[in-house]
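Hey all, sorry for the wall of text incoming. These are the two entities for the joint prediction.
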Amino acid sequence: EAGVAQSPRYKIIEKRQSVAFWCNPISGHATLYWYQQILGQGPKLLIQFQNNGVVDDSQLPKDRFSAERLKGVDSTLKIQPAKLEDSAVYLCASSLQGRETQYFGPGTRLLVL
Amino acid sequence: KNQVEQSPQSLIILEGKNCTLQCNYTVSPFSNLRWYKQDTGRGPVSLTIMTFSENTKSNGRYTATLDADTKQSSLHITASQLSDSASYICVVSANFNKFYFGSGTKLNVKP
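and here's what came out:
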């Protein structure tokens, strides 16, 4: 069974630039999560999708972050414009319906200079 | 306030030794508690999941305990190996669909 795929694995940008991350969850998983993990900390939920609907985006900085999951399968997370404090690993995870174990992708490591 | 606190923040042990990681939580209403292992540069991988009625759950050399009364959990690693070097994250679920993550314990196993 293929795991959660994410791309790119690494990205270096300058502040005020834009960046987008892509995630393809495990086939059949209805729930998709985007997390931000700052070095030395646990993951922080940014947004949770159930199919193509948003369940929880209370911690998403909506002035600069946006995410979509138009067809209820893969998803993109965008930052525009990026700030220095956005430097982190962005993890995507999926689960069957939201109550089960989450399966994480390898993450995208973002460095904002 | 729903919180998950882990200790110690970091730990260094010699290969072959045992260690215990702690997780205290104030999450309510409690649904379950998971321990994840996160290798450097990778996403977390689930080790164990425990519900309210379970006191102990093992996965190979990993044994998790849960005391729902005191809201404490521990992860015991037996006969540590170099490959156990990783961060271990405690995640507590509320209402089965809200997840609270600890900051993790970074374990370094030295030869």
